[in-house]
Amino acid sequence: MKFVRTEDLKAGMRLAKPIYNKKGVLLYERNSALTAPGIASAKNFGLIGVYILEPAEPLPPLSREDLEFEQLQTVYIFRLREVLNCITERRKLEKYPVFLEDILSHYGSLKHRVNFNQNLRSSDDFMYKHAISTAILVTMMGAHLRLPKEKLRILTTAALLYDNGYRNVPRNILEKGMNDLSSSDQDVIQLSLEKGLVPLSMYRNDFDFFPRALALMQTYVYEGHPEKLATAPDQELQEMASILRIADWFDRMTAMNSGHEPMSEIAAMQYFKKYPKKFLPVLVTALAECIHIVPKAASVDLSTGDKGIVLIENTRDFMRPVVLRLSDNQIYDLSDKNVYQEMQVTDIMKTMDNRVAMDEETLKQFVPDEKLRQLTQEFRRKLAAGKK
């Protein structure tokens, strides 16, 4: 798989990912060959490029849920663009309630972890894609924490709209990585975010939840400048801002950007653990319980310098799965403290489009013996005991 910029696309190239229109209608299926009209459509959609399969490369597996996730992301990005255009033009947000409830219905009642896949971003579409991803994350986290529906509306609205000011941030700054921003760059972003909140005040009376959502946006945007707030945020606002912070940072750190390399999910989670006051551990745990960090079949790097494949995901501690080390074809239960002292997962391998590299074919060929069956039973027993 390789990424090809739109201007370099040629007829006959096979798509690695589907292309949808703004209503979520499938226009071009995966593995379909590009045509001249298809290339023109990609340019009209404002795509900076697409992922293309190598000539002899087989189509990578994607679950139905993964495909739906991509489809919804595309639909939501177009809807958010319409909402932000309304804000810029000072028009009523007539379609916003339906948009918001759609996100809440899809991601506010999940009972399982999801593969959190992000689209490649450029300075032109960063704001929209980041806002959608952040909104999905806070919705899942809030639901997992059993927040009432009204709080979810407040939290998700804040995630969607707090960075409205990114529209005014210069392209050269947006293309930098988080660690590459100078103090002057950060000042420009801060002032832009503050200005972006100003037009939102006109919607205070349009929705019952909006005044509180705006207060949350102000709490988050002004957290480094509390003197600019009319009143100090109450505890509830601070708690919701903590959820927003983790979702915001996680997405920005791990998303693939055309200007810089992303951080792996493992590295992002380890970073959060270094600063427990800023990223509350209970909320970091909530995030890990909503998305797959080290899923079954994932290809991983081990501290021994070897490669491994995850045989069993550890739902209680994602850093301690059962792995098959490829160098010796042996199974290691990293939940065992003695094994963990000798071997840890250091990072997870990713594909070109920033998805977790899954080696499901190796697992299909791997026939579990009695030892693995016993290990699996013991591993699950440990997990079950840990949940009590």
Number of helical stretches of at least 4 residues: 14
> How would you spell out the order of helices and strands?
EEEEHEHHHHHHHHHHEEEEHEHH
Distance between termini? 44 Å
Average pLDDT works out at: 87
Radius of gyration: 22 Å
Biggest pleated sheet: 5 strands, antiparallel
Instruction: Decide which structural class fits the backbone.
Output: alpha+beta
Helix content: 40-55%
Number of strands: 10
Strand order of the largest sheet: 9-8-7-6-10
Which residues form runs of ≥5 with pLDDT under 50? none
**Based on CA inertia axes, which overall geometry fits?**
globular
What features would you highlight for this structure?
388 residues, alpha+beta, five-stranded antiparallel beta sheet, three-stranded antiparallel beta sheet, 10 strands
What does this structure look like?
Helix content is 46%, strand content 10%. It has 14 helices and 10 strands. The protein has helices at residues 36-44, 64-88, 96-107, 126-144, 149-161, 171-174, 183-197, 210-221, 235-254, 265-274, 281-288, 337-342, 360-365, 370-387, and strands spanning 2-5, 14-15, 19-20, 26-28, 49-53, 299-302, 307-312, 322-325, 330-333, 345-348. The strands form 3 sheets. A 5-stranded antiparallel sheet has the order 9-8-7-6-10. A 3-stranded antiparallel sheet has the order 1-5-2, with no helix packed on it. A two-stranded antiparallel ribbon has the order 3-4. A hairpin with a 5-residue loop joins strand 3 (19-20) and strand 4. The protein is globular, with a radius of gyration of 22 Å.
